Amino acid sequence: MSLNNSSNVFLDSTPSNTNRFQVNVINESHESSAAMNDNADPPHYEETSFGDEGQNRFRISFRPGNQECYDNFLQTGETAKTDASFHAYDSHTNTYYLQTFGHNTVDAVPKIEYYRNTGSVSGPKVNRPSLLDIHEQLAKNVSVAPGSADVVANGEGTPGDEQAENKGEDQAGAVKFGWVKGVLVRCMLNIWGVMLFIRLSWIVGEAGIGLGVLIILLSTMVTSITGLSTSAIATNGFVRGGGAYYLISRSLGPEFGGSIGLIFAFANAVAVAMYVVGFAETVVDLLKETDSMMVDPTNDIRIIGSITVVILLGISVAGMEWEAKAQVILLIILLIAIANFFIGTVIPSNNEKRARGFFNYQASIFAENFGPSFTKGEGFFSVFAIFFPAATGILAGANISGDLEDPQDAIPKGTMLAIFITTVAYLGVAICVGACVVRDATGSVNDTIISGMNCNGSAACGLGYDFSRCRHEPCQYGLMNNFQVMSMVSGFGPLITAGIFSATLSSALASLVSAPKVFQALCKDNIYKALQFFAKGYGKNNEPLRGYFLTFVIAMAFILIAELNTIAPIISNFFLASYALINFSCFHASYAKSPGWRPAYGIYNMWVSLFGAVLCCAVMFVINWWAAVITYVIEFFLYIYVTYKKPDVNWGSSTQALSYVSALDNALELTTVEDHVKNFRPQCIVLTGGPMTRPALLDITHAFTKNSGLCICCEVFVGPRKLCVKEMNSGMAKKQAWLIKNKIKAFYAAVAADCFRDGVRSLLQASGLGRMKPNTLVIGYKKNWRKAPLTEIENYVGIIHDAFDFEIGVVIVRISQGFDISQVLQVQEELEKLEQERLALEATIKDNESEEGNGGIRGLFKKAGKLNITKPTPKKDSSINTIQSMHVGEFNQKLVEASTQFKKKQGKGTIDVWWLFDDGGLILLIPYILTLRKKWKDCKLRIYVGGKINRIEEEKIAMASLLSKFRIKFADIHVIGDINVKPNKESWKVFEEMIEPYRLHESCKDLTTAEKLKRETPWKITDAELEAVKEKSYRQVRLNELLQEHSRAANLIVLSLPVARKGSISDWLYMAWLEILTKNLPPVLLVRGNHKNVLTFYS
């Protein structure tokens, strides 16, 4: 195919693809080159952007002199061909450069869909092509159509698309709030409480303007630091519903999140009752003034409170949109009330207000009220404890994070601005009221200064009023005595009452919404399984209606029966505990130095966050020490409960990150410490294959490595690299999870290799980390060695030689039934599958029966469809019954029992240690560690050593002395003096029959034939070799006789492993030694250390 290099080539009447793409056109033609040579200019590269999706037009940027080349192109009004009209691998023509980057290859360009979580509400998750997809050779019958990778990338045609679309449509109608209505308004309403109107003036009277401002600023410092920490956490990734619980749980993990989430939701529920009671008390006070009481003050509060909660519940259940509108109305009323106060301070005071202590702005009053004047029993911290709850409420916006359009933007902006505005308001009210109103006033207009009277020096005296009698008798007015100072000062008193109503109702409404939202998020995570019922949401906003009614019940209960004055400090401490954990979360995430900690909000410091956490804890004790203790006890109990239950979640918490950093630091620090014999511990590589296939081998190894040494379960995949790697990677997580589920403290490692020995050699050299490297190889005895192929025997003996070459100790474990239960597992798996099919079949049959009564044509078609599905069922059913009827014994019940023998508690008995050769002490250390375990603690050590017949007592005393120096307890010591005696003829005959198939018998043949046999079968046992090691062979047979005699009843035998010298002992002869040595015995551990000391008697 030939292509013209002129621009007309790019013109086509076919409409373009609506995808946005960028192209670079590079002129490669002769004419272009000639033109460039004539101009003696460097080549010009034209950048063309095909990007306007709405109009399918071109935007072209060109250099001077090249505009004419494109004028005709634009005037035609036609669009370029899409990349679908080009060949995927056409990279030698100009048309190649018109293709969108990433459309002509399976390799995908970056897209947000690849990084979403499964089930994300913001869009479907799409799987990018795997490394194998782009790395492996492309199949010949697979053609890469241009743009096909993009189809995959966009998830076109995937089964989950329809579901994702439906989910997106569902979410489209949901009400989402911006940062003003969603966060700013809620936080301001929640922070501005009743305290602003009825307690702030008293705080200024007690602490003075100076300390009053300090109290406000100290409270603001706590909330500001918490706000900064909240902002940092909220901008470190997508935030879902759950507020404080979500932030803490995703940062510190489910243990902290689950504990604080429950008490935080409960605190919000009880806070509804507190705020409603505050509203009801104000209404009852108004009823008292007008003498309109219904029953009595207490019952009136209950009646009004109950009615109020019902109305608030109705607003909440109506939907977030109605609740938000109510919040805006309440904020307007609150702002008017605050403005009304400031206006009132500049309206000239009348005689009645002066008598009550209000004189407008006066420098003398400001000076007099600047310092503290604490009454009896009050102090800085007690006043601070009363004010601090007024500064809380900063999480009101974060608590509805799931209902925000952009939580990452809204939470920092709205929360910090709300803290700033409310702090300015608190400071303004405190300073203004302190500059206008005296501390004590009688309220009597007759207490004026008469000319000639001596002034007592007070500010009121200088302004013409004598309130001196307030020093001797209680007065009803002034900052110290009248809680309604703001109402008196304001321009219109009823507006302050409206402000009180607004503050209480808005806080109650915010808490009534926050509690169910947080509780729903907690229940959705299924941390407390009993609470799963409350996870369900309703409507387009996923409203937690069940949570609303639960909150309603709790609020009603505390309104009707609880003593709120007692519960209030605990609730305040619950909120403070949440603040403390949010600050600690920010510090912890920063300290863990996880690369995933990348908050977009950068105005934070981890040490400031830590200081904030400590400050919150201190404030908890300042407010009420016993409430703080109760809070910590409840939180600790919930933490222990969640830790014990171990919820199956993985949120990538900073706790995980810090665990990794700590482990890494400790591993690096360990490398700086030289090994010492006192700290030696068996660190084992166990060749289990899949850990579940040889459980007994893993159990016995775990018995002496648990909590003391490293244990790595290893598997070697032999075969074609591609298949092996795929199988290996697919099973890694599953097998490690099996270890965790069975509470086995071990790691799983696997390698793919061309042969078994190469794989083990790789594991021996590369396993471990720093000082935590294996020093002992544990393998199972090869029970089928007589029937095994030559290569398997060579590999088996070869890995023992390799271990010794790498100076690694070897432990060979033998039990009578063998270790491999893979066939049993396979049968069990098949039975489970068949059982699942049977249950599914029964469910289908039940469905058919239930639908049999459906009449009409539709019912007939349904019935026919079901009948088609269930046609083959009789066959399946019969096969299930057949297999279920088979007895488990047919699958080797003895093997199953043997595989669990080391899981059981070992009864009273002995561990017989045959310490025949000194290997550094490993043969003694392993059984000693076993006796420390619960399952083996009833077993006593019996030590067997070789010795001379005429020196048995001396040898026994010497061994007892050595063991006592090693501080190893033993039940008995036996010195065997007849080890070197020849075995009886029957035993030797068994050995000879055992090795007969593997002997060469070259001495019975002529020299030529013998040499030929040696070349053809070099692995066979020669007569010369057998004669050379005859004494050693005698010893193995004789040892079995002695073991049968002394240790037949032992629970476990630990025996020195004979070493086969390389090049001298053939593999089959060595296997025969191991066979005859351990034949017909209880479980045996053949142990050989690396001949370096692992025991010492020095301190």
**Which second-level CATH architecture of the largest domain applies?**
Up-down Bundle
Per DSSP, what share of the residues sits in E-state strands of 2 or more residues?
5-15%
Oligomer: single chain
Biggest sheet character: 10 strands, mixed
Going by CATH, what is the homologous superfamily of the largest domain?
A: Amino acid/polyamine transporter I
Q: Structural class of the secondary elements?
A: alpha/beta
Shape summary: elongated
What's the domain count? 3
| Rg (C-alpha, Å) | 42 Å
Report the top-level CATH class of the largest domain: Mainly Alpha
User: Which strand order does the major sheet show?
Assistant: 8-7-6-9-10-15-14-11-12-13
Number of strands: 15
Our count of helices gives 39
Amino- and carboxy-terminal Cα gap: 87 Å
- What's the overall average pLDDT, rounded? 79
Percent helix among the residues? 40-55%
| Poorly predicted parts | 1-94, 141-172, 854-888
CATH third-tier fold name of the largest domain: Amino acid/polyamine transporter I
